[in-house]
Amino acid sequence: MKYRTHNCGELRKSDVDTQVVLAGWVDSIRDHGKVGFINLRDRTGITQIVVKDENLLKLMREIGHEWVISVSGIVSLRPNGMENPELLTGEIDVEADKIEVISKSKVTPFVIADEVKAKDELRLRYRYLDLRRYPMQRAIIFKSEVYQAIIEYLHNQGFVNIETPILGRSTPEGARDFIVPSRLHLGKFYSLTQSPQIYKQLLIIAGFDRYYQLAKCFRDEDQRRDRQLEFTQLDVELAFVDEEDVFELTEGLMEYIFKKVLNMHLHTPFKRMTYEEAIEKYGSEKPDTRYDLFLTDISEIAKKSEFRIFKEANTVKCIICEGDIPKKELNNFENIAKGYGMGLSWLKFIGGKFSGPVCKFFSEEVLGEFGLSKNSTVLIVAGESKRVSKALGGVRRELIDKQLLQKSGKYDFTWITDFPMFEYDKDTGRLVPSHHIFVMPKEPEVIENNPEAAIGKLYDLVLNGVELGTGSIRIHIRNLQEKVMEIIGLDKDRRVKEFGCLLEALEYGAPPHGGIALGLDRLIAIMLNIPSIQDVIAFPKTLTGVGLLEGIPSEVDEAQLKEVHVKIRNE
Prior knowledge:
Layout: E1 19-31, E2 36-42, E3 45-51, H1 54-60, E4 68-77, E5 92-103, H2 120-125, H3 127-130, H4 134-156, E6 160-161, E7 167-168, E8 178-181, E9 189-192, H5 197-205, E10 210-218, E11 230-239, H6 243-262, E12 271-274, H7 275-282, E13 296-297, H8 299-302, H9 308-312, E14 315-322, H10 327-339, E15 345-350, E16 353-355, H11 364-367, E17 376-383, H12 385-402, E18 413-417, E19 422-425, E20 430-433, H13 444-449, E21 458-463, E22 466-473, H14 478-487, H15 492-505, E23 513-519, H16 520-527, H17 558-563
Parallel strand pairs: 3-5, 6-10, 12-18
Antiparallel strand pairs: 1-2, 1-4, 2-3, 4-5, 7-9, 8-9, 10-11, 11-23, 13-14, 14-17, 15-16, 15-17, 18-21, 19-20, 21-22, 22-23
Helix pairs in contact: 4-6, 4-16, 7-12, 10-12, 14-15
């Protein structure tokens, strides 16, 4: 018989008395003696099958969960009061006149249900079963809808979708490369591209003045809940633009996605703050601006204390939190500050009285200058200004995660602008790029005289405390590009060896250009309020980079290694 005429989530009241054929997985079975019920599931939903025929009841009693079956029958209206509002098909049943078993299933290692108690390792080992669960299917389908919205919007804006190579050359981009040995060229390697940065600039120089790509990127870096070894980013590049053009385009794209997929209106233009403002106010270059929890400079108050560390510190800042934070959490915050090489002090104002280890260093009059009127806990860090801010920024993130109610359903976009082009690396004693080396400086003459003070035409888009994307206006003049490379320690030979094709292309009429790369897995996770991007990727790796389903990374046959001129050394 025909496997199916309709999907399991498709039938409605208007289909009553229609002869249909459905196929899918057995979600549940209920045997009431003379009548049985099968919930049949596919990715579109569930339809309840009613079984009354004796022979079909016998067959039903042999069928197990997750078997694949096909059912023929007539669509009928459910009796009054028996509707199921939780199902899209909840007003109808299909009365079976034929059931065919297509394939059987062993007992699954965990229950295929919305809520699952299985550990992540088991879910990843049997990912194809985990993906049958509604929350997982919803995330993957939702991701597809977002991709479709992106394509529609950029197509209407005149962009061309161009694929760039995955096999490229190794370049210093901030993370380790995955390298691929060449079979035909002894001792030489390809690199899996960390991002299409150089390729997209070359495409702009080639005259494709509006390029985009849903790009696969590969970075051999330690994983977190918002990182995977391979991920997808939206790459966008435009010619003859400055920052404002990129902001306007990106905000329009976000508006379109949220309206199309969530039917939600975003308020634009998005908030903006400079890098310095973000560090000063939030202690982070990717602040979660949903919360009115700010860093407050109390240096003047602190200098009136008798506490030597406060009196001698360059800067003293605090976070004032409502309520009485327990000692266990305060110890946790102290450990977070230590991770930034800083100490954390605290005091409390509870029931109109001050308490805490540093209270004894303040007079009552000076304590009154904190201006506290509600029960509060004050978390204090003293030292060099930027280190103080970053330590308190780490504490602030922990406060939001552990102490405050998460504001799900709220999406707070912020542009962070005016990043310094370089950072000082104390290990190498050199300047290194704060993002990458292709950024146009706001004042090119500063590069010559004082590169440490150079500010780049560089911007990040932050959503709910997550760096969603980063972009810049690029350098389109060879001499300036080489100067930036020289500042970070690339001599002429290395510049030509690693970036020769781009440097040469910049001499053949390169237009001013810029763009942005947006992490799509992160965007989907935030839109769905899912804590880890692992659950919006069909086949992710564990935090240690292992594919439990496929058993990777795996050993390679000696003959294959010999073919690509690679020998494994046992250390």
